[in-house]
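Q: Given only this backbone (133 positions), what sequence would you predict?
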């Protein structure tokens, strides 16, 4: 399956997230939905959110020029390389998930929920981590 197909089918296609992108940990956008734009500066900051937890806790993070307040950062399941960061902006939010080689980025808008978006992201993140991505 192509990276774009993961965005179209496994993320946005679920109806539980509004926009999505898959970034490479080493940089670059591998795939994205049509309405999301993540600047190079945001890509660097999103990547840093997984290594500098104190900074993201203090300042939050940005996705598509929207600032999200930090909610949580945790490993998921038995794989310590799968780290999930959640942020909130009013009734909307964003979920970031780092796998071995990729970073999944999704946004959701009310009435979509953090739980639904988180479940979608962690399911795909676990799958990709299991494939060594």
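A: Predicted residues:
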């Amino acid at each position: 399956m192509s990276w774009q197909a993961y965005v179209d089918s496994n993320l946005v296609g679920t109806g539980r997230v509004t926009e999505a992108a898959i970034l490479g940990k080493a940089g670059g956008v591998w795939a994205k939905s049509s309405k999301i734009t993540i600047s190079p500066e945001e890509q660097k900051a999103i990547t840093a959110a997984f290594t500098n937890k104190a900074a993201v806790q203090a300042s939050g993070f940005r996705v598509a020029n929207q600032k999200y307040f930090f909610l949580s950062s945790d490993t998921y399941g038995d794989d310590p390389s799968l780290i999930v960061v959640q942020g909130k902006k009013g009734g909307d939010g964003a979920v970031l998930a780092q796998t071995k080689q990729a970073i999944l980025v999704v946004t959701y808008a009310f009435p979509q929920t953090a739980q639904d978006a988180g479940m979608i992201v962690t399911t795909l993140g676990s799958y990709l981590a299991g494939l060594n991505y």
